[in-house]
């Protein structure tokens, strides 16, 4: 099993996952050149990627799709409503588009899509299951619903949003309507909400990437302090029960990276 967050943040998102020889990208919100270079740094070849699964249609999750599909003809998977809402839909090879239901297979992997609360057409998170391993990606969600909590439970690796600090956001320079959107039920997850989602996980012993961190309304030190503070107060041991890492906007972060 291999998982690498290639990029995470408002300027672009992409995650690489491999289980049992099946290789996937979750989102492609950075350039094809960056994706190819990042994979080469992992010892991987873009030509071995068997699919790109898309969480939703916002530009920071699909900006690299057009070139990626035209050049490498990689199959794309997402909700039909998401495809229809993509700004680049007319530029994508139509035979690459694969509308999904809640569960489907790619190679040796079972892929489960679960609904999330975000201001997009039909946004989802994903769990990838195979070879007795489970990888889950849950970002861009206004709050953790019961079905999201169920989806992240029992994950060996979890990519979970820790987008903002509420105080930094409320006191920051964003217009009020944007602040209201981010803090709303269809916006983005705060550090504290991310921490409590981890506390409520049934299975611990999980490797967690804290992702989609705002450059304006959060900072790595504050996110780490807030989340580890809540977790430790609940008697959870970092390093044995939960292993936490911070995903980054401009740097690839892998499973063997630096822990909080």
TrEMBL record:
Domain of life: Bacteria
UniProt domain Metallo-beta-lactamase: residue ranges: 11-188
Pfam families, sorted: Lactamase_B_2
Alphabetized InterPro entries for the sequence: Metallo-B-lactamas (IPR001279), RibonucZ/Hydroxyglut_hydro (IPR036866), WalJ/YycJ-like (IPR052533)
Name of the protein in its database record: Phosphoribosyl 1,2-cyclic phosphodiesterase
Species, as recorded: Pectinatus brassicae
């Amino acid at each position: 099993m291999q998982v690498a967050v290639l990029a995470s943040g408002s300027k672009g998102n992409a995650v690489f996952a491999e289980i049992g020889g099946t290789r996937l990208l979750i989102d492609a919100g950075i350039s094809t050149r960056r994706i190819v270079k990042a994979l080469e740094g992992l010892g991987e070849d873009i030509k071995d990627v068997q699919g790109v699964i898309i969480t939703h249609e916002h530009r920071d999750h699909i900006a690299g799709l057009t070139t990626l599909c035209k050049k490498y003809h990689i199959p794309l998977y997402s909700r039909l409503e998401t495809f229809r809402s993509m700004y680049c839909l007319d530029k994508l090879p139509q035979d690459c588009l694969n509308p999904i239901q809640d569960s489907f297979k790619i190679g040796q992997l079972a892929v489960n899509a679960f609904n999330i609360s975000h201001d997009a057409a039909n946004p989802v998170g994903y769990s990838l299951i195979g070879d007795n391993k489970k990888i889950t990606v849950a970002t861009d969600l206004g709050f953790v619903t019961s079905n999201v909590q169920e989806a992240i439970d029992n994950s060996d690796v979890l990519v979970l949003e820790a987008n903002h600090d509420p105080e930094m956001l409320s006191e920051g320079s964003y217009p009020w309507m944007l602040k209201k959107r981010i803090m709303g039920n269809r916006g983005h997850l705060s550090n504290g909400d991310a921490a409590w989602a981890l506390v409520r996980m049934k299975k611990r012993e999980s490797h967690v990437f804290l992702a989609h961190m705002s450059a304006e309304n959060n900072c790595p030190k504050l996110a780490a302090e807030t989340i580890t503070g809540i977790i430790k107060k609940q008697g959870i041991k970092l390093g044995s029960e939960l292993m936490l890492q911070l995903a980054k906007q401009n740097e690839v972060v892998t499973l063997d990276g630096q822990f909080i």
